[in-house]
Write a structure and sequence with these properties.
Blueprint (H helix, E strand, L loop, with lengths): L1 H22 L3 H5 L3 E7 L7 E6 L2 E6 L2 E6 L5 E6 L3 E3 L6 E2 L2 E2 L11 H11 L3 E2 L4 E3 L2 E3 L3
Parallel strand pairs: 1-10
Antiparallel strand pairs: 1-4, 2-3, 2-5, 5-7, 6-11, 8-9
Length: 141
């Protein structure tokens, strides 16, 4: 009878530890924001309408201005338009994502499940470049 109590207590401890790991599985999903503010300027040109897009959605802002975007574990594409103007540097239209430090905690606590949750929700990534400069120039006539 004593042997059964010890085994049950051991089993309860194991289940409790596993439950804690499952709860902490998506570390960045729990502790980090899934949104971040992005500022966009177009140089001396003001009033351009810019669209920022990633796999989580599209976000709109007039320059100069800021907009909240949902983080995603993929690049953020930027395009701006204003009548009579064209992009001076079309390559300025992307910002690459970067893994957040907290997402690396999944290697210890959450394993593959936690990493997958953070990447799917976007909580495990951020855009390190928060101030976007998208230069525009007058269109050739």
């Amino acid at each position: 009878m004593i042997g059964i109590k010890i085994n049950m207590k051991y089993l309860i401890n194991i289940i409790s530890i596993l439950f804690i790991f499952i709860i902490l599985g998506g570390c960045a999903s729990i502790t980090e924001s899934k949104n971040q503010s992005m500022s966009v300027t177009t140089g001396e040109v003001t009033g351009a309408m810019c669209t920022l897009s990633n796999s989580k959605g599209s976000y709109y802002v007039n320059t100069p201005g800021s907009v909240m975007v949902r983080n995603a574990c993929d690049q953020l594409s930027i395009s701006c338009a204003k009548e009579g103007y064209v992009p001076a540097n079309p390559a300025a239209g992307t910002v690459q994502d970067k893994a957040k430090n907290m997402a690396w905690g999944n290697l210890v606590f959450g394993g593959i499940i936690g990493l997958a949750v953070d990447r799917t929700t976007g909580a495990g990534c951020q855009y390190p470049q928060q101030n976007i400069f998208y230069p525009m120039k007058k269109a050739a006539q």
